Amino acid sequence: MSSNDATRDSHQVEQHLVTLDAAVERLLEAGLATLSDDAVVDTLQRLEVSLRKAAAVGNRLVIEAVERSIPGNLACRSVNEFLIHTLRISGGDAAARVKRARKTVVWHNLSGDELEPALPDTAAALTAGAIGTDHVRAIAQVMRKIPHGTDTDHIDVAEHILADAARATTPEDVTTIGLHLLAHLAADGNAPDERDRKRMRGLRVGKQGADLMTPISGLLDPEARALLEPVLAKLARPGMNNPDDPDSPVGDVDSADLDRVALAKAAARDTRTAVQRNHDALKTGLRHLLSSGVLGSHRGLPVTAIITLSVRQIEEENGIVTTASGGILPISDALRMAEKSHPVLALFDHRGRPLHLGRAKRLATADQRLALIASSGGCTRPGCDAPASMTAVHHVREWRDGGRTDIDNLDLACDHCHALIHDGPGGWQTRTSPDDTDNAGRTAWTAPKHIDPGQKPRINRRHHLDELIAGALEHARARREAELREHHRRRSGACGATGGWHRQARDSDGGDNDSDGDRGGDVP
Fold it and tell me: What's the CA gap between 233 and 231, in Å, rounded?
């Protein structure tokens, strides 16, 4: 870079900083009390976008300092120390900024060539002000946990999915999505096998303390979790089993007599550890509890573990499945649980939506709810990860407006999200996506203007990560193939241009000039 370029760039940066300082000063002096409610919301959103973009500029400056060895030139032992002393920030903040910069900024090798950021989609979203620094941290934490041996396509797709999700949700939600995403990435053999899960299982009941409280710790295997979740969904609902409320609903479990002789013989053969026996006791108790029927129903269905399996999964015996309560099961555990189940066959169209199940009454049937659990997996509002066991059946077109209780007008919404649907200020709206769209048949939610000024209808892909991963992989492969074709085309064009030049030169020296002379250098 010439000295003139450096002087020009330095002058431009100085002008931008002066403008920025002046703008912030004017905002500090501006009267905010007279703003309308809508103006307050709009100002908050626009200011947040600007602050996020400013953070992206800060990341670039950190990398500039590193690549120029500025910390060392100023006798600092590390870039972290340089930031702490220069900006008077905490050590934790300095470390976070350095980590963020290393993941989201273009680096240069010794030859000066640019190196793509480690998290390119995340970097683009941060630069656009669509996500914040906490989003970046959440994405980076998930990416660090991707199993070793995962192919590059899946790694790239995982980062794209997380960055795209971060544009529309909170950092905490990104972490939740990441946990499910990791489970899907590990489903092809990177997760611990059944032998490892048996070894790790356990439930430890600690000693009772002076306050009469008892600590519990341990690890539940996927099947035990799947059995526990629907019990908690029933008995831990708000209002249930409240000791301070004499009228609170209570769920009781009857004890059963034991064959003491058989029990003694079994004890002599038992080689398990104490914590393993505790774990197995819990699992057995939960299984008997759920099969007894004493818990009655929960949201219109018997309280039980609901697992959705496709015919392909059953045939291939590979992958993972998600329970109606949001838990994740390896296919082997799901098939073992299915041996003692009462299967329900549900048929879906090629878009994954249930075929017609109609009803003339307002309340959905148990069959309709089962079909929705299998097709939607949980609450359908974008950004919500509530599992199916925590949802109610929602009329996409309201019953009071003539909406029928037919399967194509029904979907799932948790209690909180269901209450958001109304015509007043801040209300959400739902509709069924048209047939000519990519999300045909799925329920699309439109956020109020203070959340999405453009009010674009969106669907929730949180419960369909397998579809999202497959679609993203297909898109990535198609993009790579297109880039390869473009590369070949450019090479062919370069060769053609060279060949044509030689033909023209030869013709000018007296060679024969035929009608195909302009294609003489084409490469097949």
Answer: 5
